Amino acid sequence: MNADAPTTVASTPTPPQAKKEHTGSRRMPFDVRQLSLVGVLLALVVVGALTKPDEFLAGENLRLILTQASVIGVVTVGVTFVIIGGGIDLSVGAIVALASVWATTVATQDFGLTGMLLCSLLVGLGCGLVNGLLIAYGPMVPFIATLAMLASARGLALQISDGNTQVVQVDAVLDLGIKDSYVLGIPPIVLVFALVCVVGWLVLNRTTFGRRTVAVGGNAEASRLAGIAVKRQRLLLYLLSGLCCGIAAFMLIILTGSGQNTNGNLYELDAIAAAIIGGTLLSGGRGTILGSVLGVLVFTTITNLFALNNLQTDIQQIAKGAIIVAAVLVQKGRSTS
Question: How many helices (H) and strands (E) does the chain have?
Fold first, then answer.
């Protein structure tokens, strides 16, 4: 055999699974689930137009729906990131309450709008930091760690407020909630919600942080072997969730003109439910900001319709529960197909 003859190296064939994953990564910008949510939303609008046409389609009511969706919507954006990353956050409602109470204490209000905003954001980040450290470096199960934070934050909020409603006395904050502050007829709270959604979408779909979030949620061990700092990524995700809670708390302060230890009640359930029906996989690795936003709008519109038609709250909760069960069953069906 001639030693000088060129050696032919057979090219390594691409595994079929890799090809499948590559082609599967091309997603349509608007999938079937999101289209179905748009359909549900349109159906709810039709129901509202038929049952209470003058009240439901009024501009003031539509602004009310968007305003109510904004606070829980910002929280849902943070929760969506956490779930996509393979975690869960049951403490978001309690963090919103703690941040709103801490930011409306007399001492904090002395620093004006800037001081209240910074306090709200720092409290949210601080709680998110504790959650992230316990889960990523503890390590503790996310369910247990965030459940402990839920109890602790609620208790601290009650202690700070002494069970009383803390009224905001800062005019600059109160002015953000009146019609004179609206931009083209849109409340500032709604504009903040839109900005958070756009930034969240860009971070999830156009940055390395977003790709790492999906990777860690899909397979944490494979992500670690690929060189991703899994623990740091999880810590950052809970910091992000805490930041969103801080923003939502300040929005709630503007909306109500007060801080209460009961703020954010059941926000964790509403946010998780909105993310689930929006297509976020509970086991992690998949989800969209757009789907979560549509989920928030669906739930908020249902609440508005029930209120306009004087229907009981218990029926409303049953309807929400049925929607959540249906969404999970659809997820199971798609994952097994």
Answer: 16, 2
- For residue 149, what is the enclosing H or E element? helix 142-161
Domain ranges of the chain: 33-336
Domain 33-336 has CATH 3.40.50.2300: no
Residue 128's alpha-carbon distances to 87, 115, 196, in angstroms, are 13, 20, 17
pLDDT of residue 20: 38
What is the block-wise mean pLDDT of the chain (337 residues), using blocks of 10 residues?
43 39 41 80 90 88 94 97 97 97 95 96 98 94 96 96 93 91 92 97 96 96 95 97 98 95 92 92 92 93 88 76 74 59
Q: In angstroms, what is the C-alpha Rg of the chain?
A: 23
Cβ contact 210:265 at 8 Å: no
What are 37's two structure tokens?
């949510």
Q: What's the one-letter identity of residue 94?
A: A
For tokens 């609440």, the residue is: 303
- To which H or E segment does residue 39 belong? helix 32-51
Coil, strand or helix at 167: strand
Question: How far is residue 47's CA from residue 53's CA, in Å, rounded to a whole number?
Answer: 9
Select from 157, 155, 173 the least CA-distant residue to 165.
157
* C-alpha to C-alpha distance for 195 and 113, rounded to whole angstroms: 20
